[in-house]
Structures are given as C-alpha cells and as structure tokens.
Amino acid sequence: MLTTLRQIVESVTAAPSLSDAMHSLVQQTRAAMHVDCCSVYISEPQRQRYRLMATDGLSQEAVGKAILPFDEGLVGLVGRREELINLADAPSHASFKYLPEVGEDEFKTFLGVPIMHQRNVLGVLVVQQKLSRQFTEIDESFLVTLAAQLAVRIAHAELKGLISSSSNHRAVHGVGVSSGMAIAKAWVWQPKMALSQVNLKHSDEPELQLELLNQAVLQVQIELDSLAMRFQDAVQVDSQSIFDIYQHILADPNFIAQIELEITENQWNATSAVRQVSERLIAQFSAMSDPYLRERSLDIRDVAQRLLSCLAHSHMDQFDFQEPVILLAEEVTATLLAEIPKDRLAGVVSIRGAVNSHAAILARTMSVPAGMGLELPLQELDGQELIIDGGNGDVIIQPGSAVLAEYEQLIQQAKAFDDLVAQEAQLPSETQDGCPVSVLLNAGLSLDVDNCLMDCSDGVGLYRTEIPFMLHDSFPSEQEQTKRYRAILEQYSGRQVCMRTLDIGGDKPLPYFPISEENPFLGWRGIRITLDHPELFLAQLKAMLRASEHNDNLAIMLPMISCVSEIQSARRLLDQAWLEVSDELRTRGSAIRYPSLGVMIEVPAAIYLLPDLAPYVDFWSVGTNDLTQYLLAVDRNNARVAQMYDGLHPAVLRALQQIVHTANQQAKPVSVCGELAGDPVGVLILLAMGYRRFSMNLNNIAKIKYMLRRVRTDALVPLLEQAIQLHDSVQIRKLFTTYLESVGLQGFFSKKA
Length: 753
Prior knowledge:
Layout: H1 2-14, H2 18-33, E1 37-44, E2 49-56, E3 67-69, H3 73-81, E4 85-87, E5 109-117, E6 120-129, H4 137-163, E7 170-172, E8 175-178, E9 181-188, H5 206-230, H6 237-251, H7 253-265, H8 270-286, H9 291-311, E10 325-331, H10 334-339, E11 345-352, H11 358-365, E12 370-372, H12 378-381, E13 385-389, E14 394-397, H13 401-422, E15 438-443, H14 448-452, E16 460-464, H15 466-470, H16 478-491, E17 497-500, H17 527-532, H18 534-547, E18 554-558, H19 564-586, E19 596-601, H20 604-607, H21 610-613, E20 619-622, H22 624-632, H23 650-666, E21 670-672, H24 680-689, E22 693-696, H25 698-708, H26 713-723, H27 729-742
Parallel strand pairs: 9-10, 10-11, 11-12, 15-16, 15-22, 16-17, 17-18, 18-19, 19-20, 20-21
Antiparallel strand pairs: 1-2, 1-6, 2-3, 4-5, 5-6, 7-14, 8-12, 9-13, 13-14
Helix pairs in contact: 1-2, 1-4, 2-4, 5-6, 5-9, 7-8, 8-9, 16-18, 18-19, 24-26
C-alpha cells in the first residue's frame, strides 16, 4: 500500500496541470482502494458551494457542472466539520442528498475527507462503493494522505489563477522577518549559474583548472569586499561581518582544498569540482537539526554559485530598475540584497529562510519589509503587482483597486504618523496622569544605528552579546569583547546598560561551535552552555567588567534560568571574575563597582521559583518571546504554526500578572524586553498590571513614548480587570484598541485588508 501511495503522490506532483493531477488521482485511487467511485469536489467560497471537478465512477457529463451548497449533502458536512466522515450506509444519513445528474444511485458506502491548506477547506475527496461496508483505518489514512498532497496543488493553482484575474486578491501567509509595508512590482531573481545546471565533465589539464579556480576565488573575494564596503556607511558594522563569513568559506581549507582535490585526483574540471564538493557540504548542513546551521547551507550555495558564475564568465546583471521592486527568490541571500541599490528595493520575499538568516538580519538593518517561508509560484509572479506586510509576513497578490487604495492610505498614514511621533521623541516618557515609565532599548545588532536614538531611550534594557559571536568565524577574544562592550557603555554614559550573557543555542548557534540536537529549543542553550564552559563565561564576564572601568552603568543579565543552582553557579563565577579584574585595576589605582545581576524570566519553571530566586538577584526581566513560545508550545519561526504564537494569549497574560505581583512582593525591579514591550496594546496591558520598564527595538521607542504621554493608568486598570476574564486574545486586543481610539490614537493600529 505504501508503494502505491508513493506512486500516486508522485503522479499528482508531476502532473502538468491541476486538472491532470485530479484526473490521475481519482483513477489511481479508485484502482488502489478497490472502490467503485472516486471524486474530487472543489470549494468555491465566494458562492458558498462545491463543484465536482474530477471523478472516476460518476457521470463524466457532470464534471464541472454538478454543484453542492456548503450546507447540503455529505460533501458539505465534511467541509463544515473539517474532518473525515466514514459511513457504511450513506443514503440513510440525515445529511445525504441525492444528485440524479451525477449517477450515484447505487452507491451505499461513503468516505469523504476535507482537502485542507492553511486551515482553509479547498475541497473534499470522496470514495464510494456499492456494497455496504465500513472503510478501515488504513483506508482513512490512505485518503487523508492523498488529500494533503492534492491540497498543495490546488493552493498553487489558485495562486496562478489569481495572476490573470483582476477581480480577486489573495493573501499568502509567511513569517514576518522585517516590519513595514510596501507596494511594488515583483522581480523574480534566479541565479545565472545554479549548481544543478553544471554538466559534470572531466579534464586532462588539472594545472589549468586549478589556475581557473584560483582566479575565480580571487574575483569572488574582491566582489565580497566591494559589497561589504557598500554597507560601511549605510548600516552597522556588525552587518558587514556577515560578509566575513562568506570570505571565511572561501578561505576554509575544508572547502577549497576539497575542490582542488577533486581536480587533481578525480580529474574533474573546475566547475564540476565546485559542484561536487558544494553539494556534499550543502547536504551535510541541510541535514542538521539546528536551524542556524541549516541556514549555513545557503551561504555555501551562494558562494559556490558565485564561483560558478566567474568560471563561466557569467556575471550578475546590473540592477537598473526605473522604480523600486519587491525582490522574490527561492532563497534570498545577504550578497543578493547587497547588490540591489537600496533605493530600488521596496521589499523582500523568500520562499525559504528564517528570522535569523543573514538576509533577514540585513533586511531589518536596511528597514526593508521582508517575509519568508511563503509558498508561492515564483515564475508566474514576475512583474505582477504585490503588497508586502513585513510585520506579519503577508503577501497580497494582484490587489484590487479597493485593497490597493487601502494599503496606499495605510502606508501614507504610517509615514505621517512616524513624522509626528519623531517630533516628540526627546520628550520624557510619562503617562498623562503623571506615572513615570522607563523606555529602554534592545541593542546588539547595531552601535551606529542605535546611536541615532540614544537620546530618546532611558538606557539599554537588553544588549544581545551573542550577535557579535554569531557574526564572527571564531570566538572573539577577551580584548575584542572589552572594546565592543566599552563602546556601548560609553555611548550610554549615565544610563544603565543591561548586558545579557552569551545566549546561544536554540535558533542561535555559532557557525564555529556546532550543536546538533533533536530539539534545540529544549536542549543545550543559554546559561546551560556558559556554565558548562566556564572558560568562555569568565572571559566574557571579565570583558564586561573591564569595559565598566570609568563607566559605572553596567548591569549583567543571565538568560534561560530555570533553577536556583544556575544563579548560584553564575554568581560564583562573577565573584571570581570581579576579584581578578579588581586586583588588576588596583595595581594602577583604579576600581570598578560590582554590577547588578539579574535574570531573564523566559522558562515557565522560573515563574514558580521567583521567591526562591529573589535573594540571589537584583532584578529580573521578562523575555516574552521565549516565554510565550514555551507556554504555548509554538515555534514562532515555523510558518505553519506562527499564527498560533500570541503574546496576548490569556495564559501568557496571567503568567505576566503573576510575575509582576511577585516582583512587588519581593521588592525587585522588573522589566519586559520581548516583542510585547514594543506592541502598543501589549504596553497598555503591562502598564495596567504594574510594569514600568519596557525594553524594545529602536524603531518602536518614539511611538511608545508618544502613546504613553496620552494614556492614563487609572483608565487602564479597569480594562485589565475585564480583559483577564476573557478567553480570546482577539477580544482582549479589541478592548484596548477601542481605548486607543477613544483617546485619538488610531495611528497605532490599522485594519488590514
């Protein structure tokens, strides 16, 4: 049965059209399941009905003509329930509806399964038999599997159909990796020379092939240096380090030496050798369970294709667009983004990619809206008008005039609103009823850009020390770390800078420190790694302490704490580092203050240990991103379940309320440094709970301060009392957006088409 299933799936996938795929499926399924009939009904949601689109067993004259309303018949029942229905005597069921035009008089047994895609019912797949019997669980599993395969073909066919239709639009959902909205024509990029296009050939001139390879390597190195220089003034220094990783690949003996070995020992020509070695490495990295290491396979592919282009004398065309475009590609790379002039790049859409990919990091630093993980028929979209919403990863294909007008207005409103709030960015953050609030910065990706808003924030609530580690090709030395940490402490002189110790693992491993785990988010990450490697931890702590000399504004925060012993161990290492650095400084007549030590509350277990943690720490900060992810068991980087990730989920709100209540009891300062702290509704709810310190990304600071000066805490507390009783985050958000409307702050949210 498994072999038959695979054959049917392959035929459905390989079929030249959806019609052919459905025709093949019903024929093969009828034969494989030994039934008398197999049919496919396709949903027409605008008319609230199903249409028979393929059958083997019913009248062929009814194909394309027979219809069933959503609320009628067994097919309609399958769609409404969104689950399979297995009946031994279908005509006796209350929902059975006889359709004389399709010729189903003799059929007794019915098995129907919904064809689902992204929670939408696209149709119903049905098998029927004349004899009355119950289909088995194996039959059910077989049909459910086929329906899932057909769903993908139907979804793609719908998208292709939209391109030639001006009457409909469709929002395709992905993962937002860089916020903002844009409207522009799509420009689909494909590599000039892909690995798969290389025809393997031998050569009897290995010396010549080695020389060609060396010339190609040199040319790519020059190109990468040029691209890095383009970012020197435009974005932060750390982003330039992304190109260092590409250079590291070219200099890696495990890469180039293997290519040379293929040329000299196996007699391949240069292009064939590049393909052979690159595909092996790509396969190795792609098979790794760690998300970050899987992303490195994209870097290797990008470098390899650049080498191939040089070897084939096929270079990138100059980007000479008359107007900005939305870049679409199977895999958007950092070097591809660097090659397109920023004033011609309206947005970025990548079929594959992740929040922490190099392309995503660059898109955020360039303030270009970007979405990844979308299922799109690329070639059919070239030149078509798109709308991208990088905040939620949505792409709208062929928007109608009404939708287009709405988004144009939203973009204009967003720009006007940004200009308005920028005028008040330097004013203090205090509510209308006189409640002072600290608005802090989440830093780490940038020193240069963050500096633009340094006067707007009250300090740094979270400095991500792992970002420089991720963008280097080896562990940075203690001296390198000291220099970097001193720079940010000096920039924020007089205001506290809270540095989180190395938080790697999960979705943030290091390219030179591979961690292979079945479930990295529940594995070796954060404080667990640094306590297991005290030599790394001590070096980082001493670098922070040395940087704090003459800068009395350092606080240190520990990530992923789940038990008291972790804090005790970390405190002992901090004591050791402080004593060593203090002794060194004392010899030259200098001294440093012992820093405040805090913990991140992001593992649910920590919530129940707060009273036990309190004696060992000076403050704590709630990392709502991971806390929400762990509480809801949802990977927010997974496009299939990302819509379930919800910071306003009632369980999350109740956990946050418990944390601030315990903080008040224990007299410990508490802040919030996750994405919820930059969400206007999230801030209102947190304010009502009693939180007064919010750390957020730089592009949210001015907006949140603007909002704070126009709201009252005494008006928010009654709203929280209502919200905490609700069971639906949509209702909770509506409650607070209504309040924002009442005080004239509609600019903080918008109803999207």
